[in-house]
Amino acid sequence: MNLLNLRKVAMVGCGFVGAASAFAIMQSGLFSEMVLIDANKTKAEGEALDIAHGVPFAKPMKIYAGDYDDLGDASLIIVTAGAGQKPGETRLDLVKKNVAIFKSIIPEIARRNRDAILLIVANPVDVLTYAAAKLSGYPESRVFGTGTVLDTARLKYLIGEHLQVDSRTVHAFIIGEHGDSEIVAWSCANVSGVPLNRFCEMRGHYDHQKAMKKLADGVKNSAYEIIEKKNATYYGIAMTVKRVCEAIVRDEETILPVSSIHHGVYGLDDVALSLPSIVGKNGVETVIPLKLSAKEVAALQNSAEMLKNVISSAM
What we know:
By secondary structure, the protein is α/β, with parallel strands linked by helices. The chain has two domains: about 5-145, NAD(P)-binding Rossmann-like Domain (Rossmann fold); about 150-315, L-2-Hydroxyisocaproate Dehydrogenase, Chain A, domain 2 (Alpha-Beta Complex). The chain is built from nine helices and 16 strands. The chain has helices spanning about 15-30, 40-50, 95-110, 125-135, 150-165, 195-200, 210-230, 235-250, 295-315; strands at about 5-10, 35, 60-65, 75-80, 115-120, 145, 170, 175, 185, 190, 195, 255, 260-265, 270-275, 275-280, 285. The strands form five sheets. Strands 3-2-1-4-5-6 form a six-stranded parallel beta sheet. The protein has a three-stranded antiparallel beta sheet with strand order 7-10-11. Helix 1 (about 15-30) packs across helix 8, helix 3 (about 95-110) packs parallel to helix 4 (about 125-135) and helix 5 crosses helix 7. The radius of gyration is 19 Å and the shape is globular.
């Protein structure tokens, strides 16, 4: 058993997402040591230097490029490594390329560290979370992905804009796949305890079906729109990674819709997807059972079935 440094984080993958996430983590003050690992060691060195030059404006932190041997005492290992999503490409199009990459990365991590939490960020995140759990042999509670945490933030943002209220007072979740089969859990959505439809009517919005479709499509198409305009998304997911790190390091036991492997809930079995879960220092503690409509449960099961098919073809 490794003696873990609870103040050390490792970032595996230094592309757009990995670098932006490392920058957000540096600003957070959560850790005192961060090692950056990439197949291109020179790139990792450049990112480490660039980010480290901001430390005088933040909190003391050792930031450096390293290799797998530097992972041994990291308490949290974040994996962003993988091929990026190209314009017109779905997250699931990436699957075979990135599962192959994980087959080389994850065993190297597991060989050096058996006790960390593995946070998967690379896409398709649900499939890769499942692959990481199986390839690492880690307990499933300690391998989870960012899932629909960002989708949920996008939903809250869009609802906040629609209703002209602070998005932090919007309580709603995207569940299922982080991708095209994701589901908005409309039946549970509210604004500071007021059911969403009632709050909409308070603000002069009455065509609920039309608004719900527009908002759901807005979330689903966000990544495609950003990729079309600037070739990659990285700031939103970087903030997402920082938020999940906060929940772990501070043992917040906060509720986030992370992607983990489920057995039994809503009739799901041996599939990774996102459901609101309590997240703390030991990883995913438990799933929060939302009171979903029959239609939402059916959509969730369809999302799970599609993911299972992808997993079986990719693994």
